């Protein structure tokens, strides 16, 4: 029996356009008035009257109309593919923390008050041995993280030199997450030799706001130096893409476009992108976010305000990756003492260590298995029934574990919902996208 897919959504735009969006294949179709009401009637009573054979075939092909058991089949297919990806050994992804030291004192940092360590030569040797023993991996992804990783640039250099001489697996992707303060020509020379694909540099808003939050003991104007260093990367590393993360909360959300406007006026290149990093400030007692964190409803307004300021905003829903490093078997975060973690937020917490690089055993199997098995969306009945299941990544695995095992109340849903689905917001996003594109598929 054919039914309208639960992932199909009919709506009429403010301009009177008849549109249909399907979250499974993430596309929307322009309909005639007759087609719209024929599909609407079909969704209610299951009658195909008013639709031609060609139209029905098109709707079936696009999975807008499906067999009655399609939802369960699709759910199991996505679950299988995600599990297969998460349990794959083909790629070894290493998030390496060469040091936990940091030169900034950010008020919201989740790594504050953690011991300062730096990776030793012995741990570097153990790291290379670990990679060589991972025989089923054919390629390597490297992500440099901290602390501030560039405070241990000499350690990064040693690791890259050692890997290049002792490991036969190619490094297919290399990324750097940095506050940008320590970037210089010497750093760029290193990453010319060992190609850096991406660098993420973080700002905290306009100059005054940023300098209040992100400063060193000797420099309370880090903003200008970081802006200059963005230019150094763009000039010295022509194969590197720069992602500028601008931290956003309720206090500085109106400044975002001012920062992007300033930096774009200095550096006109398609190798430079911006995105808002919504700060997550937790209330550990209530088990949820607290002020000045931005809630989902405020995020929606934030994006529409950006568009009003002339920012390009892609309002079309995108498929979120369902494979955070925390739920991937062959992905590890390696601390400076050779300790293994599954989540960046766990770094420096002894009870969150899952093992050590010089040991073949997982020492904290309970936590390791919780991340792998309970950190996904697939055992959540709300996710199974959700219209946005195909395009949602399921939220943060760590917050999912906190909700499940620590009585947390963290919102795991996409911007399109906050408890209940906000179809008005979805309609508005789709309508904005419709205005931007020159053509939309039409039901023939």
General description of the model:
- With 444 residues, the protein is α/β, with parallel strands linked by helices.
- It has two domains: 2-81 and 377-436, no CATH class; 89-373, Aldolase class I (TIM Barrel, Alpha-Beta Barrel), CATH 3.20.20.70.
- 36% of the residues lie in helices and 18% in strands.
- It has 14 helices and 19 strands.
- It has helices at 33-45, 53-61, 70-86, 121-133, 153-166, 185-193, 207-213, 222-236, 256-266, 296-308, 365-374, 381-384, 397-405, 423-436; strands spanning 2-4, 8-12, 18-22, 27-31, 65-67, 91-96, 139-144, 171-178, 198-203, 241-248, 272-278, 282-283, 288-289, 331-334, 339-341, 355-356, 417-418, 420-421, 441-442.
- Strand 6, helix 4 (121-133) and strand 7 form a beta-alpha-beta unit.
- The longest helix is centred in the first third of the chain and has 17 residues, at 70-86.
- The radius of gyration is 24 Å and the shape is globular.
- The model has no long low-confidence stretch (mean pLDDT 91).
- This is Radical SAM domain protein.
- Residues 88-317 form the Radical SAM core domain.
- Keywords: 4Fe-4S, Iron, Iron-sulfur, Metal-binding, S-adenosyl-L-methionine.
What is the number of domains? 2
What is the spatial order of strands in the main beta sheet?
11-10-9-8-7-6-14-15-16
| Fraction of residues in helix | 25-40%
Low-confidence stretches: none
The assigned CATH architecture of the largest domain is Alpha-Beta Barrel
Sheet/helix structural class: alpha/beta
Question: How much of the polypeptide forms β-strand, as a percent range?
Answer: 15-25%
- Number of extended strands: 19
CATH class call of the largest domain: Alpha Beta
How many helices does DSSP assign?
A: 14
| Terminus-to-terminus distance | 23 Å
Could you tell me the CATH topology label of the largest domain: TIM Barrel
How is the biggest beta sheet arranged?
A: 9 strands, mixed
CATH H-level superfamily title of the largest domain: Aldolase class I
Q: Which shape, going by the Cα principal axes?
A: globular
Q: Give the radius of gyration.
A: 24 Å
């Amino acid at each position: 029996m054919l039914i309208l897919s639960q992932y199909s959504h009919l709506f009429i735009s403010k301009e009177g356009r008849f549109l249909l969006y399907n979250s499974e294949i993430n596309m929307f179709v322009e309909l005639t008035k007759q087609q719209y009401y024929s599909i609407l009637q079909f969704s209610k009573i299951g009658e195909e009257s008013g639709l031609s054979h060609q139209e029905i075939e098109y709707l079936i092909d696009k999975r807008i109309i499906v067999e009655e058991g399609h939802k369960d089949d699709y759910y199991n297919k996505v679950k299988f593919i995600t599990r297969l990806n998460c349990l794959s050994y083909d790629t070894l992804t290493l998030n390496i923390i060469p040091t936990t030291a940091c030169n900034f004192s950010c008020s919201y940092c989740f790594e504050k008050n953690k011991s300062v360590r730096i990776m030793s030569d012995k741990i570097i040797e153990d790291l290379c041995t670990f990679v060589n023993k991972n025989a089923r991996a054919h390629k390597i992804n490297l992500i440099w993280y901290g602390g501030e990783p560039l405070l241990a640039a000499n350690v990064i250099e040693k690791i890259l030199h050692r890997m290049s001489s002792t490991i036969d697996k190619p490094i297919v992707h290399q990324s750097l997450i940095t506050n940008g303060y320590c970037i210089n020509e010497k750093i760029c020379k290193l990453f010319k030799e060992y190609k850096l694909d991406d660098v993420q540099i973080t700002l905290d808003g306009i100059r005054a706001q940023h300098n209040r939050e992100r400063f060193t003991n000797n420099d309370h104007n880090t903003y200008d130096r970081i802006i200059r260093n963005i230019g150094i990367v763009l000039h010295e590393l022509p194969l590197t893409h720069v992602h500028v993360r601008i931290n956003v909360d309720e206090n500085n959300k109106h400044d975002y476009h001012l920062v992007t406007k300033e930096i774009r006026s200095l550096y006109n290149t398609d190798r430079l992108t911006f995105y808002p990093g919504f700060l997550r400030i937790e209330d550990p007692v209530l088990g949820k976010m607290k002020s000045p964190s931005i809630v989902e409803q405020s995020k929606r307004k934030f994006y529409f305000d950006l568009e009003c300021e002339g920012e390009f905003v892609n309002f079309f829903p995108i498929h979120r990756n369902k494979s955070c490093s925390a739920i991937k078997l062959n992905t590890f975060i390696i601390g400076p003492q050779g300790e293994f973690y599954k989540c960046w937020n766990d770094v420096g917490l002894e009870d969150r260590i899952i093992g050590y690089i010089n040991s073949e055993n997982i020492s904290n199997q309970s936590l390791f298995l919780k991340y792998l098995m309970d950190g996904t969306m697939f055992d959540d009945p709300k996710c199974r029934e959700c219209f946005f299941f195909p395009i949602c990544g399921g939220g943060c695995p760590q917050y999912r574990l906190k909700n499940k095992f620590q009585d947390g109340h963290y919102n795991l849903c996409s911007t399109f919902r906050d408890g209940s689905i906000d179809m008005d917001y979805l309609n508005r996003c789709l309508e904005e996208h419709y205005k931007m594109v020159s053509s939309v598929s039409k039901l023939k």
